[in-house]
Protein backbone atom coordinates (compact mmCIF):
# COMPACT_ATOMS: atom_id res chain seq x y z
CA UNK A 1 0.00 0.00 0.00
CA UNK A 2 1.10 3.57 -0.63
CA UNK A 3 2.26 5.57 2.36
CA UNK A 4 -0.86 7.69 2.71
CA UNK A 5 0.63 10.03 5.25
CA UNK A 6 3.29 10.93 2.71
CA UNK A 7 0.74 11.30 -0.09
CA UNK A 8 -1.57 13.45 1.99
CA UNK A 9 1.38 15.57 3.05
CA UNK A 10 1.78 16.66 -0.60
CA UNK A 11 -1.68 18.23 -0.63
CA UNK A 12 -2.23 21.34 1.49
CA UNK A 13 -6.00 20.77 1.29
CA UNK A 14 -5.60 18.06 3.91
CA UNK A 15 -4.33 20.62 6.40
CA UNK A 16 -7.04 23.14 5.56
CA UNK A 17 -9.33 23.59 8.60
CA UNK A 18 -12.40 24.52 6.56
CA UNK A 19 -12.22 21.18 4.72
CA UNK A 20 -11.77 19.06 7.82
CA UNK A 21 -14.23 16.17 7.98
CA UNK A 22 -15.23 16.26 4.34
CA UNK A 23 -14.76 13.49 1.80
CA UNK A 24 -15.22 14.51 -1.81
CA UNK A 25 -16.49 12.01 -4.33
CA UNK A 26 -16.86 14.29 -7.28
CA UNK A 27 -13.42 14.17 -8.76
CA UNK A 28 -14.97 14.96 -12.11
CA UNK A 29 -14.91 18.53 -10.88
CA UNK A 30 -11.17 18.29 -10.44
CA UNK A 31 -8.72 17.18 -7.80
CA UNK A 32 -7.12 19.32 -5.18
CA UNK A 33 -3.75 20.69 -6.26
CA UNK A 34 -0.48 19.30 -4.99
CA UNK A 35 1.98 21.58 -3.21
CA UNK A 36 4.67 21.66 -5.94
CA UNK A 37 2.14 22.95 -8.48
CA UNK A 38 0.99 25.67 -6.10
CA UNK A 39 4.61 26.60 -5.36
CA UNK A 40 5.49 26.83 -9.03
CA UNK A 41 2.39 28.83 -9.85
CA UNK A 42 3.15 31.27 -7.03
CA UNK A 43 6.77 31.59 -8.11
CA UNK A 44 5.80 32.21 -11.71
CA UNK A 45 3.35 34.95 -10.76
CA UNK A 46 5.88 36.53 -8.41
CA UNK A 47 9.04 36.27 -10.47
CA UNK A 48 8.41 35.21 -14.10
CA UNK A 49 5.14 36.74 -15.27
CA UNK A 50 6.65 38.30 -18.37
CA UNK A 51 6.66 37.32 -22.03
CA UNK A 52 8.71 34.10 -21.99
CA UNK A 53 11.68 33.17 -24.20
CA UNK A 54 13.24 36.64 -24.43
CA UNK A 55 16.93 37.20 -23.55
CA UNK A 56 16.58 38.55 -20.01
CA UNK A 57 16.55 36.57 -16.76
CA UNK A 58 12.85 36.55 -15.77
CA UNK A 59 11.80 35.71 -19.30
CA UNK A 60 14.42 33.01 -19.75
CA UNK A 61 13.45 31.41 -16.45
CA UNK A 62 9.75 31.46 -17.42
CA UNK A 63 10.38 29.90 -20.83
CA UNK A 64 12.74 27.29 -19.38
CA UNK A 65 10.14 26.26 -16.83
CA UNK A 66 7.48 25.89 -19.54
CA UNK A 67 9.85 23.69 -21.54
CA UNK A 68 10.66 21.73 -18.42
CA UNK A 69 6.96 21.00 -17.85
CA UNK A 70 6.55 19.61 -21.36
CA UNK A 71 9.69 17.55 -21.39
CA UNK A 72 9.19 16.03 -17.94
CA UNK A 73 5.52 15.23 -18.55
CA UNK A 74 6.36 13.76 -21.95
CA UNK A 75 9.04 11.63 -20.31
CA UNK A 76 6.56 10.33 -17.75
CA UNK A 77 4.06 9.50 -20.50
CA UNK A 78 6.63 7.79 -22.69
CA UNK A 79 6.46 10.15 -25.68
CA UNK A 80 8.72 12.72 -27.33
CA UNK A 81 8.80 16.22 -25.83
CA UNK A 82 7.30 17.91 -28.89
CA UNK A 83 4.45 15.38 -29.00
CA UNK A 84 2.95 16.90 -25.85
CA UNK A 85 1.03 20.16 -25.85
CA UNK A 86 -1.24 22.19 -23.62
CA UNK A 87 -4.62 23.73 -24.32
CA UNK A 88 -7.27 25.41 -22.19
CA UNK A 89 -9.15 22.14 -21.63
CA UNK A 90 -9.64 18.70 -23.12
CA UNK A 91 -12.90 19.81 -24.71
CA UNK A 92 -11.16 22.68 -26.45
CA UNK A 93 -8.36 20.39 -27.55
CA UNK A 94 -10.81 17.95 -29.18
CA UNK A 95 -12.67 20.84 -30.74
CA UNK A 96 -9.47 22.03 -32.41
CA UNK A 97 -8.63 18.47 -33.47
CA UNK A 98 -12.05 18.06 -35.04
CA UNK A 99 -11.42 21.16 -37.17
CA UNK A 100 -8.12 19.68 -38.30
CA UNK A 101 -9.77 16.37 -39.26
CA UNK A 102 -12.60 18.22 -40.99
CA UNK A 103 -10.04 19.83 -43.31
CA UNK A 104 -8.40 16.50 -44.12
CA UNK A 105 -11.43 14.20 -44.48
CA UNK A 106 -13.64 13.71 -47.51
CA UNK A 107 -17.44 13.39 -47.45
CA UNK A 108 -18.32 9.72 -47.12
CA UNK A 109 -15.33 8.92 -44.92
CA UNK A 110 -16.20 7.83 -41.41
CA UNK A 111 -15.36 8.40 -37.74
CA UNK A 112 -16.26 5.96 -34.98
CA UNK A 113 -17.43 7.48 -31.68
CA UNK A 114 -18.88 5.72 -28.64
CA UNK A 115 -21.85 6.33 -26.40
CA UNK A 116 -19.55 5.65 -23.44
CA UNK A 117 -17.64 8.87 -23.97
CA UNK A 118 -17.90 12.19 -22.26
CA UNK A 119 -19.29 14.88 -24.55
CA UNK A 120 -15.73 16.19 -24.99
CA UNK A 121 -14.68 13.24 -27.14
CA UNK A 122 -18.03 12.85 -28.83
CA UNK A 123 -19.81 16.11 -29.71
CA UNK A 124 -16.95 17.76 -31.66
CA UNK A 125 -16.64 14.64 -33.83
CA UNK A 126 -20.38 14.13 -34.29
CA UNK A 127 -20.69 17.68 -35.59
CA UNK A 128 -18.54 16.70 -38.57
CA UNK A 129 -21.65 14.98 -39.93
CA UNK A 130 -22.59 18.48 -41.14
CA UNK A 131 -19.65 18.20 -43.55
CA UNK A 132 -20.75 14.85 -44.92
CA UNK A 133 -18.57 12.76 -42.61
CA UNK A 134 -20.28 9.55 -41.61
CA UNK A 135 -20.46 9.07 -37.84
CA UNK A 136 -20.63 5.48 -36.65
CA UNK A 137 -21.53 4.84 -33.05
CA UNK A 138 -19.82 2.06 -31.14
CA UNK A 139 -22.41 1.27 -28.51
CA UNK A 140 -21.99 -0.02 -24.98
CA UNK A 141 -23.88 -3.01 -23.69
CA UNK A 142 -26.98 -1.37 -22.18
CA UNK A 143 -27.02 -3.82 -19.29
CA UNK A 144 -23.45 -3.45 -18.14
CA UNK A 145 -21.96 -0.37 -19.77
CA UNK A 146 -19.23 -2.56 -21.28
CA UNK A 147 -17.66 -1.48 -24.57
CA UNK A 148 -16.95 -4.65 -26.49
CA UNK A 149 -14.02 -4.57 -28.96
CA UNK A 150 -15.77 -7.26 -31.01
CA UNK A 151 -18.56 -4.76 -31.68
CA UNK A 152 -15.99 -2.27 -32.95
CA UNK A 153 -14.64 -4.76 -35.47
CA UNK A 154 -18.02 -4.80 -37.19
CA UNK A 155 -17.88 -1.01 -37.62
CA UNK A 156 -14.43 -0.89 -39.15
CA UNK A 157 -13.86 -0.77 -42.88
CA UNK A 158 -11.75 1.16 -45.37
CA UNK A 159 -13.88 4.30 -44.91
CA UNK A 160 -13.04 4.75 -41.23
CA UNK A 161 -10.33 7.34 -40.62
CA UNK A 162 -10.56 7.75 -36.86
CA UNK A 163 -11.74 5.79 -33.82
CA UNK A 164 -12.49 7.75 -30.63
CA UNK A 165 -13.09 6.15 -27.24
CA UNK A 166 -12.36 6.70 -23.54
CA UNK A 167 -9.56 5.01 -21.59
CA UNK A 168 -12.15 4.18 -18.97
CA UNK A 169 -15.84 4.73 -18.58
CA UNK A 170 -16.58 7.71 -16.38
CA UNK A 171 -19.74 5.94 -15.22
CA UNK A 172 -18.91 2.34 -14.47
CA UNK A 173 -15.15 2.89 -14.27
CA UNK A 174 -14.35 -0.07 -16.51
CA UNK A 175 -10.90 0.25 -18.06
CA UNK A 176 -10.97 -0.25 -21.81
CA UNK A 177 -8.16 -2.32 -23.39
CA UNK A 178 -6.58 0.60 -25.24
CA UNK A 179 -3.77 -1.41 -26.81
CA UNK A 180 -6.11 -4.07 -28.17
CA UNK A 181 -8.59 -1.51 -29.52
CA UNK A 182 -5.79 0.57 -31.01
CA UNK A 183 -4.39 -2.49 -32.77
CA UNK A 184 -7.81 -3.22 -34.29
CA UNK A 185 -8.23 0.35 -35.49
CA UNK A 186 -4.71 0.58 -36.88
CA UNK A 187 -5.14 -2.70 -38.72
CA UNK A 188 -8.15 -1.14 -40.42
CA UNK A 189 -6.12 1.94 -41.34
CA UNK A 190 -7.73 4.30 -38.81
CA UNK A 191 -6.12 6.71 -36.34
CA UNK A 192 -7.02 6.47 -32.67
CA UNK A 193 -8.03 9.21 -30.22
CA UNK A 194 -8.32 8.26 -26.53
CA UNK A 195 -9.93 10.41 -23.85
CA UNK A 196 -7.91 9.67 -20.72
CA UNK A 197 -9.54 12.31 -18.53
CA UNK A 198 -11.23 9.79 -16.23
CA UNK A 199 -8.25 7.48 -16.17
CA UNK A 200 -5.15 9.67 -15.77
CA UNK A 201 -5.95 10.84 -12.21
CA UNK A 202 -5.45 7.23 -11.16
CA UNK A 203 -2.02 6.90 -12.72
CA UNK A 204 -0.27 8.57 -15.65
CA UNK A 205 -0.23 5.94 -18.41
CA UNK A 206 2.65 5.04 -20.68
CA UNK A 207 1.07 6.48 -23.82
CA UNK A 208 3.92 5.27 -25.99
CA UNK A 209 3.18 1.74 -24.90
CA UNK A 210 -0.59 2.11 -25.41
CA UNK A 211 0.12 2.94 -29.03
CA UNK A 212 -2.75 5.38 -29.64
CA UNK A 213 -2.21 8.44 -31.85
CA UNK A 214 -3.90 11.00 -29.60
CA UNK A 215 -4.20 10.85 -25.82
CA UNK A 216 -6.02 13.59 -23.93
CA UNK A 217 -6.43 14.40 -20.27
CA UNK A 218 -7.08 17.36 -18.00
CA UNK A 219 -4.42 18.55 -15.57
CA UNK A 220 -6.98 19.97 -13.16
CA UNK A 221 -7.96 16.37 -12.41
CA UNK A 222 -4.38 15.20 -12.04
CA UNK A 223 -3.48 17.55 -9.15
CA UNK A 224 -2.45 20.36 -11.48
CA UNK A 225 -3.72 23.65 -12.90
CA UNK A 226 -6.72 24.05 -15.22
CA UNK A 227 -5.11 22.90 -18.46
CA UNK A 228 -5.91 20.27 -21.06
CA UNK A 229 -2.93 18.10 -21.96
CA UNK A 230 -2.73 16.46 -25.36
CA UNK A 231 -0.34 13.87 -26.71
CA UNK A 232 -0.27 13.93 -30.49
CA UNK A 233 2.03 11.32 -31.98
CA UNK A 234 4.28 12.66 -34.68
CA UNK A 235 2.95 10.73 -37.67
CA UNK A 236 -0.59 12.01 -37.22
CA UNK A 237 0.50 15.47 -36.10
CA UNK A 238 2.45 15.91 -39.30
CA UNK A 239 -0.44 14.66 -41.42
CA UNK A 240 -2.96 17.14 -40.01
CA UNK A 241 -3.11 20.81 -41.03
CA UNK A 242 -1.97 23.64 -38.78
CA UNK A 243 -4.67 25.11 -36.52
CA UNK A 244 -2.47 27.78 -34.94
CA UNK A 245 -0.86 31.03 -36.08
CA UNK A 246 0.75 30.42 -39.47
CA UNK A 247 4.22 30.92 -38.02
CA UNK A 248 3.65 28.08 -35.52
CA UNK A 249 2.64 25.53 -38.13
CA UNK A 250 6.01 23.81 -38.29
CA UNK A 251 6.24 23.20 -34.56
CA UNK A 252 4.37 20.07 -33.54
CA UNK A 253 3.59 21.14 -30.00
CA UNK A 254 2.25 24.52 -31.13
CA UNK A 255 0.29 23.44 -34.18
CA UNK A 256 -2.94 22.49 -32.38
CA UNK A 257 -3.00 25.36 -29.90
CA UNK A 258 -4.64 28.26 -31.72
CA UNK A 259 -4.06 30.88 -29.03
CA UNK A 260 -1.08 31.71 -26.86
CA UNK A 261 -0.91 29.36 -23.87
CA UNK A 262 -1.36 30.23 -20.22
CA UNK A 263 2.35 30.50 -19.45
CA UNK A 264 2.07 30.28 -15.68
CA UNK A 265 -0.17 27.21 -15.73
CA UNK A 266 1.94 25.44 -18.31
CA UNK A 267 5.05 26.08 -16.19
CA UNK A 268 3.30 24.99 -12.99
CA UNK A 269 2.36 21.68 -14.61
CA UNK A 270 5.93 20.52 -13.95
CA UNK A 271 4.80 20.34 -10.32
CA UNK A 272 2.67 17.29 -11.14
CA UNK A 273 5.87 15.48 -12.09
CA UNK A 274 7.60 16.79 -8.95
CA UNK A 275 4.84 15.11 -6.98
CA UNK A 276 5.06 11.80 -8.85
CA UNK A 277 8.85 11.78 -8.60
CA UNK A 278 8.75 12.57 -4.88
CA UNK A 279 6.28 9.74 -4.37
CA UNK A 280 8.44 7.41 -6.47
CA UNK A 281 11.54 8.28 -4.44
CA UNK A 282 9.65 7.81 -1.20
CA UNK A 283 8.33 4.40 -2.29
CA UNK A 284 11.66 3.35 -3.80
CA UNK A 285 10.36 2.85 -7.36
CA UNK A 286 10.86 4.51 -10.75
CA UNK A 287 8.41 7.36 -11.54
CA UNK A 288 6.72 5.29 -14.26
CA UNK A 289 5.96 2.63 -11.66
CA UNK A 290 3.92 4.98 -9.50
CA UNK A 291 0.83 4.37 -11.66
CA UNK A 292 0.99 0.68 -10.80
CA UNK A 293 1.31 1.46 -7.09
CA UNK A 294 -1.68 3.77 -7.26
CA UNK A 295 -3.75 1.17 -9.05
CA UNK A 296 -2.81 -1.53 -6.55
CA UNK A 297 -3.72 0.77 -3.70
CA UNK A 298 -7.06 1.63 -5.25
CA UNK A 299 -7.85 -2.01 -5.92
CA UNK A 300 -7.25 -2.84 -2.26
CA UNK A 301 -9.55 -0.03 -1.17
CA UNK A 302 -12.21 -0.66 -3.77
CA UNK A 303 -12.61 -4.44 -3.76
CA UNK A 304 -14.36 -4.65 -0.36
CA UNK A 305 -16.72 -1.90 -1.44
CA UNK A 306 -17.51 -3.69 -4.70
CA UNK A 307 -18.07 -6.92 -2.80
CA UNK A 308 -20.33 -5.15 -0.36
CA UNK A 309 -22.36 -3.41 -3.08
CA UNK A 310 -22.43 -6.51 -5.24
CA UNK A 311 -24.17 -8.43 -2.48
CA UNK A 312 -26.92 -5.92 -1.79
CA UNK A 313 -30.46 -6.44 -3.03
CA UNK A 314 -31.32 -2.77 -2.78
CA UNK A 315 -28.79 -1.68 -5.39
CA UNK A 316 -27.25 -3.13 -8.50
CA UNK A 317 -23.54 -2.64 -8.93
CA UNK A 318 -22.75 -1.56 -12.47
CA UNK A 319 -19.56 -2.51 -14.23
CA UNK A 320 -16.92 -5.10 -13.35
CA UNK A 321 -17.05 -6.73 -9.94
CA UNK A 322 -13.27 -7.13 -10.05
CA UNK A 323 -11.62 -3.90 -8.90
CA UNK A 324 -8.55 -4.62 -11.02
CA UNK A 325 -10.56 -3.87 -14.15
CA UNK A 326 -11.84 -0.48 -13.16
CA UNK A 327 -10.85 2.95 -12.01
CA UNK A 328 -12.37 3.80 -8.65
CA UNK A 329 -15.57 5.20 -10.05
CA UNK A 330 -18.36 3.17 -8.54
CA UNK A 331 -21.82 3.24 -10.06
CA UNK A 332 -24.84 1.64 -8.54
CA UNK A 333 -28.41 1.53 -9.76
CA UNK A 334 -30.72 2.36 -6.91
CA UNK A 335 -33.34 -0.32 -7.32
CA UNK A 336 -36.65 1.47 -7.39
CA UNK A 337 -35.49 4.16 -5.02
CA UNK A 338 -35.49 7.67 -6.27
CA UNK A 339 -36.44 10.87 -4.71
CA UNK A 340 -37.61 14.01 -6.30
CA UNK A 341 -37.71 17.10 -4.21
CA UNK A 342 -40.60 19.40 -5.15
CA UNK A 343 -40.30 18.10 -8.69
CA UNK A 344 -36.74 19.40 -9.03
CA UNK A 345 -33.21 18.22 -8.69
CA UNK A 346 -31.15 19.44 -5.82
CA UNK A 347 -28.17 21.40 -6.98
CA UNK A 348 -25.95 19.82 -4.36
CA UNK A 349 -26.44 16.78 -2.27
CA UNK A 350 -24.37 16.55 0.83
CA UNK A 351 -24.61 14.62 3.99
CA UNK A 352 -22.44 12.95 6.55
CA UNK A 353 -19.40 14.74 5.27
CA UNK A 354 -19.69 13.41 1.74
CA UNK A 355 -20.22 15.74 -1.18
CA UNK A 356 -21.56 14.84 -4.59
CA UNK A 357 -22.94 17.60 -6.68
CA UNK A 358 -25.82 16.90 -8.97
CA UNK A 359 -26.22 19.01 -12.01
CA UNK A 360 -28.37 18.58 -15.04
CA UNK A 361 -29.22 15.01 -15.87
CA UNK A 362 -28.06 15.22 -19.46
CA UNK A 363 -24.68 16.49 -18.37
CA UNK A 364 -23.93 13.90 -15.79
CA UNK A 365 -22.68 10.36 -16.13
CA UNK A 366 -25.69 8.93 -14.40
CA UNK A 367 -27.85 10.43 -17.09
CA UNK A 368 -26.38 7.97 -19.49
CA UNK A 369 -27.01 5.19 -17.04
CA UNK A 370 -30.61 6.21 -17.12
CA UNK A 371 -30.64 6.21 -20.87
CA UNK A 372 -28.74 3.01 -21.07
CA UNK A 373 -31.77 1.66 -19.23
CA UNK A 374 -29.23 -0.65 -17.76
CA UNK A 375 -31.02 -1.02 -14.57
CA UNK A 376 -34.69 -1.00 -15.13
CA UNK A 377 -34.11 1.52 -12.38
CA UNK A 378 -34.04 5.20 -13.11
CA UNK A 379 -31.60 6.12 -10.40
CA UNK A 380 -27.94 5.64 -10.02
CA UNK A 381 -25.07 7.37 -8.32
CA UNK A 382 -21.42 7.45 -9.24
CA UNK A 383 -19.13 8.43 -6.40
CA UNK A 384 -15.52 8.70 -7.55
CA UNK A 385 -12.48 9.00 -5.45
CA UNK A 386 -8.79 9.44 -5.80
CA UNK A 387 -6.39 7.29 -3.98
CA UNK A 388 -5.48 9.44 -1.04
CA UNK A 389 -8.64 8.58 0.84
CA UNK A 390 -7.78 6.10 3.51
CA UNK A 391 -9.74 2.97 4.28
CA UNK A 392 -11.24 4.61 7.32
CA UNK A 393 -12.30 7.59 5.28
CA UNK A 394 -13.75 5.31 2.72
CA UNK A 395 -15.96 3.69 5.26
CA UNK A 396 -17.36 7.00 6.36
CA UNK A 397 -17.51 8.16 2.79
CA UNK A 398 -18.27 5.79 -0.02
CA UNK A 399 -20.37 3.27 1.79
CA UNK A 400 -22.56 5.87 3.37
CA UNK A 401 -22.59 7.85 0.17
CA UNK A 402 -24.00 4.87 -1.61
CA UNK A 403 -27.27 5.61 0.05
CA UNK A 404 -26.93 2.26 1.71
CA UNK A 405 -26.48 2.97 5.32
CA UNK A 406 -28.15 6.32 5.47
CA UNK A 407 -31.28 6.96 7.41
CA UNK A 408 -34.46 6.69 5.39
CA UNK A 409 -34.92 9.58 3.02
CA UNK A 410 -31.38 10.88 3.28
CA UNK A 411 -29.80 9.12 0.38
CA UNK A 412 -28.96 11.12 -2.67
CA UNK A 413 -31.21 10.54 -5.60
CA UNK A 414 -29.24 11.08 -8.73
CA UNK A 415 -31.56 9.98 -11.45
CA UNK A 416 -34.84 11.32 -12.60
CA UNK A 417 -37.20 10.24 -15.30
CA UNK A 418 -39.07 12.61 -17.51
CA UNK A 419 -36.59 15.39 -16.94
CA UNK A 420 -36.71 18.10 -19.58
CA UNK A 421 -33.66 18.17 -21.84
CA UNK A 422 -30.81 20.40 -20.85
CA UNK A 423 -30.67 23.30 -23.28
CA UNK A 424 -26.91 23.38 -23.37
CA UNK A 425 -26.56 19.63 -23.96
CA UNK A 426 -29.24 18.44 -26.34
CA UNK A 427 -29.24 14.75 -27.15
CA UNK A 428 -27.33 13.62 -30.20
CA UNK A 429 -29.31 12.87 -33.31
CA UNK A 430 -29.08 9.19 -32.50
CA UNK A 431 -30.54 9.93 -29.10
CA UNK A 432 -27.45 8.50 -27.52
CA UNK A 433 -25.92 9.93 -24.45
CA UNK A 434 -22.52 11.40 -24.20
CA UNK A 435 -21.70 12.48 -20.71
CA UNK A 436 -19.95 15.44 -19.32
CA UNK A 437 -18.50 16.27 -15.96
C1 LIG B 1 -14.14 11.66 -19.20
C2 LIG B 1 -14.05 13.14 -19.42
N1 LIG B 1 -13.59 13.59 -20.59
C3 LIG B 1 -13.49 14.90 -20.85
C4 LIG B 1 -13.86 15.85 -19.92
C5 LIG B 1 -13.77 17.28 -20.28
O1 LIG B 1 -12.59 17.83 -19.77
P1 LIG B 1 -12.37 19.39 -19.83
O2 LIG B 1 -13.17 19.96 -18.70
O3 LIG B 1 -10.89 19.57 -19.62
O4 LIG B 1 -12.84 19.89 -21.12
C6 LIG B 1 -14.34 15.43 -18.67
C7 LIG B 1 -14.75 16.40 -17.67
O5 LIG B 1 -15.24 16.11 -16.60
C8 LIG B 1 -14.45 14.03 -18.41
O6 LIG B 1 -14.92 13.57 -17.25
UniProtKB/TrEMBL annotation:
It comes from the Bacteria. The keyword Transcription does not apply. Residues 414-437 are annotated as: Disordered. InterPro entries: Aminotrans_V_dom, PyrdxlP-dep_Trfase, PyrdxlP-dep_Trfase_major, PyrdxlP-dep_Trfase_small. Keywords: Lyase, Pyridoxal phosphate. One of its GO terms (molecular function) is lyase activity. Residues 425-437 have a biased composition (Polar residues). Residues 24-337 form the Aminotransferase class V domain. This is Selenocysteine lyase. It comes from Salipiger abyssi. The lineage of its organism: Bacteria, Pseudomonadati, Pseudomonadota, Alphaproteobacteria, Rhodobacterales.
Amino acid sequence: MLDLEFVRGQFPAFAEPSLEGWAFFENAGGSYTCQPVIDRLTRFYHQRKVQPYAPYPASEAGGAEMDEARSRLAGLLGVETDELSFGPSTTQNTYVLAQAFRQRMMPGEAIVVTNQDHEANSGPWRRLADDGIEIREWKIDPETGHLDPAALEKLLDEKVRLVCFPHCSNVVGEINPVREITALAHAAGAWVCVDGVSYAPHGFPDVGELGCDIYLFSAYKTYGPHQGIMVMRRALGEALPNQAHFFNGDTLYKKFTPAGPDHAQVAASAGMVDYIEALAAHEGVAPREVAGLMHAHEVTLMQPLLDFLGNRNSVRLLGPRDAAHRAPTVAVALQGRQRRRRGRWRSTGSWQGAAISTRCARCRPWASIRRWACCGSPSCITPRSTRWKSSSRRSTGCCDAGGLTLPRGRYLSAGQQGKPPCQSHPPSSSGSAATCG
